[in-house]
Write a sequence for this structure.
């Protein structure tokens, strides 16, 4: 019996696939499901996920046809639409943060800190998520995979690993 598990972490949801007896089951973990009640996740980036899939398809068709001006136009338009959608959901998340925090039965100090963190995430997500994930998807769709991968590896080592060490042992 062959059991292979693979997971692809995505910001607010996790898609996990389990291959079992040559069957592929895909599960979408909902942030409010009973199965994942101890894993709160933020859903304000869903328009970005959906439009990133469209960006890859649309830009690859435009680049394949040699119409680079259309690729630029649709990239800008889809990124703008995604940022509008993410901003709308971020505003809702920002305003409903105190209500959402009450679901987790936290103490008053932890609740205030959680509200601040959720609000910081909502504001930052509205401005940073689409440029961080939309532009690399556009480059990948256009056939340039070296530059996005190089930037991703560099930024992971500098901003995640090194800063985690600095904040853990130095500060």
């Amino acid at each position: 019996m062959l059991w292979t598990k693979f997971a692809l972490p995505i910001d607010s949801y996790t898609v996990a696939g389990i291959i079992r007896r040559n069957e592929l089951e895909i599960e979408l973990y909902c942030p409010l499901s009973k199965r994942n009640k101890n894993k709160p996740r933020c859903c304000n980036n869903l328009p970005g996920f959906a439009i990133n899939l469209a960006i890859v398809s649309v830009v690859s068709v435009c680049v394949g046809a040699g119409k680079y001006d259309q690729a630029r136009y649709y990239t800008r338009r889809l990124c703008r639409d995604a940022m509008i959608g993410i901003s709308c959901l971020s505003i809702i998340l920002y305003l409903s943060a105190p209500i959402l925090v009450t679901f987790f039965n936290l103490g008053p100090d932890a609740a205030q800190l959680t509200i601040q963190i959720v609000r910081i995430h909502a504001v930052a997500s509205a401005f940073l998520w689409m440029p961080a994930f939309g532009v690399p998807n556009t480059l990948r769709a256009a056939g340039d995979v070296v530059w996005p991968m190089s930037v991703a590896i560099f930024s992971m080592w500098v901003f995640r690993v090194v800063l985690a060490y600095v904040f853990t042992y130095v500060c």
In short: The chain has a mean pLDDT of 79. Residues 50 and 82 are 8 Å apart (CA to CA). The radius of gyration is 19 Å. The chain has four helices and three strands.
